[in-house]
Amino acid sequence: MPQGVPTSVPDDGLTTRQRRNAPLLVVHTGEMKGKSTAAFGLALRAWNQGFPIGVFQFVKSAKWKVGEEAAFRALDQVHTDTGQGAPVEWHKMGEGWSWTRKQGTEEDHAGAAREGWAEIARRLRSEAHGFYVLDEFTYPLHWGWVDVDEVVSALRERPGHQHVVITGRNAPAALVEAADLVVEMTKVKHPMDAGRKGQRGIEW
Amino acid sequence: MPQGVPTSVPDDGLTTRQRRNAPLLVVHTGEMKGKSTAAFGLALRAWNQGFPIGVFQFVKSAKWKVGEEAAFRALDQVHTDTGQGAPVEWHKMGEGWSWTRKQGTEEDHAGAAREGWAEIARRLRSEAHGFYVLDEFTYPLHWGWVDVDEVVSALRERPGHQHVVITGRNAPAALVEAADLVVEMTKVKHPMDAGRKGQRGIEW
């Protein structure tokens, strides 16, 4: 539990309140499970605070995240019906990004990843959301499909109050450098070591 | 993303399907943020699969988890209204456990923790839930308030199909030994290092 005591106070000319409320860039990386699930757990807090949520999944097949998607679509409906929480938009690369409505035949994953990032950059500039989950976005960065320096500068220059959480293994050094909070999920023990495969309610 | 290829297949007389569907004991430990948030992210999947959820928070003050609680109460209501997902029960130690309705004056935290565990043990025996989050339960174990061996044997002997996720620092060795999946959240970088305190939508 946070004890509310910073280990140092920087000489940056900001008040504690300004510093406290600065929007965060968060990276969940490492080899182990929990990177995306922790990002979606954070999104629950954002939802409750009324921050409009945008989820962008950089995955070929998003079948492993259907549980979270269904729950957040239900929470979006709660917001529509009652005003509680915040709106949630959920987009995935796998079937062609939702805003383009291209279907199925997308074979150019690098192109799709670049197209996804271009849309996110537009949304950051126009302050479209308050809380972004860029799920598994480290992969297109790591593979060189999307330019890391361009991403870092768009993130550094984003206006207003927009939190961004990026998940995935192999987070590039420049992204870690730019981030405010970086968590590495480390394996201690995994059921696959005992010959088990994934199962519903846990993996998806 | 799971590749579905176990690194070894044990000689335990079980079929792959039996092994696959064995209920899991999961531990999220380590010094860093993300332990509870990842547990609640997993609970979203369980909700979507229709596993009745029981959350038990072993914390004096649960103010840091209000976002998740509000979102899961909304999801419980969605289940009541539409049948989608699963019911969610949420109990916390801080104000006296919900089922006892004691208010405010609880000063005996060790006693409250033991009482919480006794109720969870009863629920495990009667298969009350399909997915349990024992949030920050490692602390009463670490401090010796609740007996680790008793907990481990109740978990090992739990009937039916009940997943259990336990979060907190300093997970006792016997608990790690009994767990199927253990993730350690490791700090790479934290905003408090840069003189920032916690903020809404991130810490609560």
Describe this structure in words.
- The structure is a homodimer.
- With about 200 residues, chain A is of the alpha/beta class.
- Chain A has a single domain (about 25-185), classed as 3-Layer(aba) Sandwich (Rossmann fold), CATH 3.40.50.
- In chain A, about 35% of the residues lie in helices and about 15% in strands.
- Chain A has helices at about 15-20, 35-50, 65-80, 110-125, 140, 150-155, 175-180; strands at about 25-30, 55, 90, 130-135, 165, 180-190.
- Chain A has a 6-stranded parallel β-sheet.
- In chain A, helix 3 links the parallel strand 2 and strand 3.
- Chain A is globular, with a radius of gyration of 18 Å.
- The two termini of chain A are about 30 Å apart.
- The model of chain A has no long low-confidence stretch (mean pLDDT about 85).
- Chains A and B meet through helix 1, strand 1, helix 2, helix 3 and strand 6 of A and helix 1, strand 1, helix 2, helix 3 and strand 6 of B.
- Strand 6 of chain A pairs antiparallel with strand 6 (about 180-190) of chain B, so a sheet runs across the interface.
- Chains A, B: Keywords: Transferase.
- Chains A, B: GO terms for molecular function: corrinoid adenosyltransferase activity.
- Chains A, B: Pfam families: CobA_CobO_BtuR.
